[in-house]
Specification:
Length: 86
């Protein structure tokens, strides 16, 4: 898992049928000091995150499990919204 900041939303009128109903977000990886780390990427939002929020992102098989369907074509998903980092 990694930390990220939601930078935007992706609108896709045509997509895999298993992605219908999911919000797709652009996430910028960050470190514990809230500094950008690497390139932004696309995630499926499973928790209702909004632009500007700090989130926890899961990738690979764990991302698919967050949608309760191993057949969903997801590589990364937002699985939590961060309240605070100590």
């Amino acid at each position: 898992m990694m930390l990220g900041k939601v930078k935007g939303t992706v609108i896709a009128t045509k997509k895999n049928e298993k992605l219908v109903g999911y919000k797709i977000m652009i996430v910028q990886p960050i470190n514990q000091a809230y500094e950008d780390q690497g390139n932004a990427f696309v995630c499926v939002d499973t928790v209702g995150a909004g632009i500007g929020e700090i989130v926890i992102v899961s990738s690979g098989t764990a991302a698919r499990l967050s949608c309760n369907d191993r057949e969903t074509p997801i590589d990364a998903s937002i699985v939590g919204i961060v309240d605070n980092i100590n």
